[in-house]
Amino acid sequence: MRLDEFVDGLERDDAAERRRLAEEKSYEITEYIDRVADRFEDAIQDETMVGSTSPSVFVGTSNYPSVSTGVLSPVGDEDRAGDYVTDDSWYRQGYSIDDVFQRRTGLMNSQQRVDVDAPGRHAGHTTPAVADAWDGMLGAQREVAIAGNPVDVEIGLDGSPDLGIDVDDIAAPTGPNVAAESVDLTENPYVPRPVKKTLEDDDWQAEGAMTYLYRRGFDVYDIREILSAGALGQGENRRLVPTRWSITAVDDTIGKYLRGTLRNATSIDETQVWYNEFMGNRFWIVLTPGRWEFELVEMKAPGSVWNPTVDSGYWLASASEGYEGRTSYVEETAGAYYASRLGVLEHLAEEGRQAKCLVLREVTDEYWAPVGVWQIRESVRNAFDPDGGRDVPGAEIPPTLAGKHATAETFRDAITGLESQLPISMGELRRKSDMVAGIQSQLSDF
Q1: How many domains does the chain have?
Q2: Which part of the chain is the Archaeal Nre C-terminal domain (predicted)?
Q3: How far is CA 235 from the centre of its chain?
């Protein structure tokens, strides 16, 4: 497809966009929270115990290394516990921001405060080092994390749930928190054989174990759970990893592994432009011939998440790496960088090719609340999917151009061809993007 035809397919109906935005910003979540409160009252017996099914775990960052750690479990909807797990299925089902918040507010976080890596005390009891913990809260949490399916649990509560919502730019939002006296499994969970192998090998570094699980078909969501619960790494070095950190760590580790597989790969032979949009985020992915190089440029609209002032103009951020990768953590674009890079590298690894890549992310004011970097990862992944990633009956229709791409003669032609679609001027983009600035440098050589 020619780039001009591709761009024509991106024309938007402004009136329809405003109607969709008004519907999206209906804030039905406030009414849903009231229903959640009623459901919690019905489910909690004698204000002390609740039986549920836990599909995942959560480890906080506040007051690190003494962190709040616990299991997440739906209350009153145990039969559908798997639907509450943050993973690629949320994209396939075309979730809205309201859908995400409804799922997350329906999960109770039963938690205790523990030290991430050493014996300590909580609720009047001494806890073992994380590496040896298979009893109590830490043990239950690790069992939930390594299980192949949601696990039935019985929770002893200490007080009533706090029905507030915590939001984050990397992790999915978290719902009601409640202090837990105890968490006990009421069944023996099924643990996949590859996970058992990583647990039994005390000499296996965490990076190698993560790569092994990925190669065995475990997605980054599964690996993140296991890492966060302190179930990966060398023996006594195993420790709890805050959820926020584990998400980025897994994206980065798997990304480095995939980049390594492409070091000697043949370059793509044409400049390609791919596109996807989801939850008020628009992504343009430009691949061009050459050795691996990557850059993410974020353009956040006034009134969108993390740029709430409506008259402030677009907030720009960028980060990049060359053929040898990065030696420091990305500060400006944080987890979005590693999530988008992973999606690109998975596509290139599947094709057995390498390329230079520029990802342009526009965050529109439709993105009124953060849902986590999973939506970035899945948007980039599914930009390359011929089916747009929507294979669930009744799911929202994917963007027309998802899974398709346009070609351009050069990288410069691709960028200039997209200029009419970008919310900022070419001058602004050139000042923020090293790759786009390089176009001008190359022209000045003649």
Answers
A1: 3
A2: 321-385
A3: 28
**Residue range of the domain that includes 414:** 264-444
Looking at the structure, tell me whether residues 272 and 250 fall in a common domain. no
In this prediction, residue 122 carries a pLDDT of 40
Residues 204 and 156 in one domain: no
Q: Same domain for 76 and 163?
A: yes
Q: What mean pLDDT do residues 131-137 have?
A: 71
| Rg, C-alpha atoms of the chain | 23
Same-domain pairing of 79 and 215: no
* Spatial separation of the C-alpha atoms in residues 166 and 214, rounded to whole Å: 30
Q: Which of 221, 244, 261 represents a domain boundary (last residue)?
A: 261
Identity (one letter) of the amino acid at 292?
Answer: W
In angstroms, the CA 17 to CA 10 distance is 13
The residue assigned the tokens 């939001």 is 167
Structure-model confidence comparison of residues 136 and 125, the more confident one: 136
Is residue 79 domain-shared with residue 137, that is, in the same domain? yes
Q: Are strands 271-278 and 266-267 parallel, antiparallel or unpaired?
A: unpaired
What average pLDDT score do residues 34-39 get? Answer: 63
Please indicate, yes or no, if residue 336 is contained in any of the structural domains: yes
Whole-Å CA distances, 292 to 321, 416, 443:
9, 22, 22
Class of residue 404 by CB neighbours under 10 A (exposed 0-12, middle 13-18, buried 19+)? middle
